Description:
Layout: E1 3-5, H1 7-13, H2 18-25, H3 29-36, H4 45-55, H5 59-62, E2 63-65
Antiparallel strand pairs: 1-2
Amino acid sequence: MAIIVNLDVMLARRKMSLSELSERVDISIVNLSVLKTGKAKAIRFSTLEAICRELDCQPGDILEYSPNE
């Protein structure tokens, strides 16, 4: 897939665990893990907004387009 998910990078930069983010955005750790590993087929804007709010970042910090993938 040409979309790369950099959620793990942003979590590391913010020194936050996946479980902490899960609690803060009220999304199951399983669903966040699916997103983090790049296995998600879609993401709701409300979910992306909540993640960006908690990580203090832009959507482009989490999602990246790579035509070579």
